[in-house]
């Protein structure tokens, strides 16, 4: 399989891991306390937070990136509760973006990392 045949689910899978590594790298420079590292990480690696990060990024996305978000938020997800389904769908779209950038455009990924690390909501 080459990178041109990857699916949105493939991008979401790798994007989830890339986001968690980014958060963990951020956290290790904040503290060396294990409990606090875990707390800071779990606060940022969850559907609600990822959805909020996507909300912050939407105005900065290109038309192609917005199209990825639109397609990704329509992926079937294994969440039964309708009340949180919207958050999970948008979190999946967030992960798709990170996976897409990681595979196809590391410069854009680094640009987004820099933007996110400056957001008050992330700190």
What does this structure look like?
With 123 residues, the chain is mainly α. It is built from six helices and no strands. Helix 4 (63-72) crosses helix 5 and helix 5 (82-104) packs across helix 6 (106-118). The longest helix has 23 residues, at 82-104. The protein starts with 7 loop residues before the first helix and ends in a 5-residue tail after the last helix. The mean pLDDT is 92.
Chain-wise SSE layout:
Blueprint: H1 8-28, H2 34-44, H3 47-57, H4 63-72, H5 82-104, H6 106-118
Helix pairs in contact: 1-2, 1-5, 3-5, 4-5, 5-6
Total helical segments: 6
Q: Estimate the global geometry from the Cα principal axes.
A: globular
Unreliable spans? none
> Could you estimate the helical fraction of the residues in percent?
over 70%
Q: Please state roughly what percent of the residues sit in beta strands, choosing from under 5%, 5-15%, 15-25%, 25-35%, 35-45% or over 45%.
A: under 5%
The chain-level mean pLDDT equals 92
Number of strands: 0
Structural class determined from secondary elements: mainly alpha
Radius of gyration (CA) equals 14 Å
The main sheet comes to: none
The secondary-structure element order is HHHHHH
First-residue to last-residue Cα separation: 38 Å
């Amino acid at each position: 399989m080459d990178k041109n045949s990857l699916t949105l689910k493939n991008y979401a899978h790798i994007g989830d891991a890339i986001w968690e590594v980014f958060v963990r790298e951020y956290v290790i420079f904040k503290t060396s306390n294990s409990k606090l590292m875990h707390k800071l990480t779990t606060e940022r690696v969850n559907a609600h937070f990822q959805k909020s990060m996507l909300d912050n990024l939407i105005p900065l996305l290109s038309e192609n990136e917005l199209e990825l978000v639109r397609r990704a938020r329509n992926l079937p997800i294994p969440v039964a509760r309708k009340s949180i389904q919207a958050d999970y769908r948008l979190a999946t779209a967030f992960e798709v973006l990170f996976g897409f950038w990681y595979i196809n455009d590391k410069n854009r990924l680094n640009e987004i990392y820099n933007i996110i690390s400056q957001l008050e909501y992330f700190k």
